[in-house]
Predict the 3D structure of the following.
Amino acid sequence: MKRTISVILAVMLLFSMASCGQNTSPKTSPEASLPASSAQAEPETVTDTYGNKFELPMKLDKVIVLNSAVYEMIYVLGKDSIVCGVGDTVDYPASALTKEKYGDWKKPNVEKIMEAKPDAVIGYSSYLDNGIAKQLTDAGIPVIMFDLYVPSVIPTEVKTLGKMLGAEDKADEFLGDIKKIQELVAERTKDVDPITVYYEGYTDYKSVGKGSGGTELMQMANLNSLTSDANESYPEISDEWILEKNPQMMVKMVSSTKKILGADITDDKAVKDLYTSIAGRPGWSDIDAVKNGKVLILSSKIGTNPLGTAIAPLYMAKTAYPEKFKDIDPDQYLNDMLKKYWGTEKTGIWSYID
């Protein structure tokens, strides 16, 4: 009897072991069984303006920057020490003047860049796609393309740059301050009857159309751009057309390289001469913008760049609708931003109106 019981117990034990050994669920790796925070995370990928993808983290200890707006933002993010060289026209903030020069922003010195062996080159997407980028990437140098001149795209570009440089918090802080100024302009201009504006870029008689940064700046100030429907981004305008349209206001943007406006310009003779040449164009003395003192001339440092996406609309709106901004001094807002993010007070002449 005892022998029979022992056999039965042995059989039952074998069935129990077999049952414990079966597993109808799929096999999982030890890593998959860990909490989500402990499992190996997929590397983050970011995309530049041109659509190039980059896996983070990136080694960016030594970079060459050809885009002046990018250098300004790298400075804002507290990372300008990683910049070993810049394009010839990158001259602000002052630290840019201490960097090695690598040629024109459209056609940089590729051989010199290759000799420097940077971790990456950062420049405009619209100019580095002409074969220059391929030369550099073929040599093993990553090319990052950021334009930073279309207001609606700039926040994404700044956030991406912040991620690449490990400075996301600073990027968010800067964008938050920019947004506050934009919201101020939007609130003060929401009920106005938009006035008509002729916007002129660096080149005489070159305006802005669909998809341009200048068009978006005017929209942010609730201005009616005369060329906003132009299919060309930068249409060419004639005197006859301007006289026919008779704009109520004009915005003229001047490049910092012209030394007409900027932090180091203290004499207003050059900008006054520019205004005189504009007002002296054939028939322009009869244009409402000239007759009513609404010709606004702005430095490119507060134009189609990250800082300009807030400051330019503020200057424009103040000029267009002064009664709505009696208590607002755009110069003070500019000074506050420069002091907080560039560590300097506003000096020189950044804008002019007559």
Observations:
- Residues 1-38 have pLDDT under 50 and may be disordered.
- The chain has two domains: 45-157, 191-353.
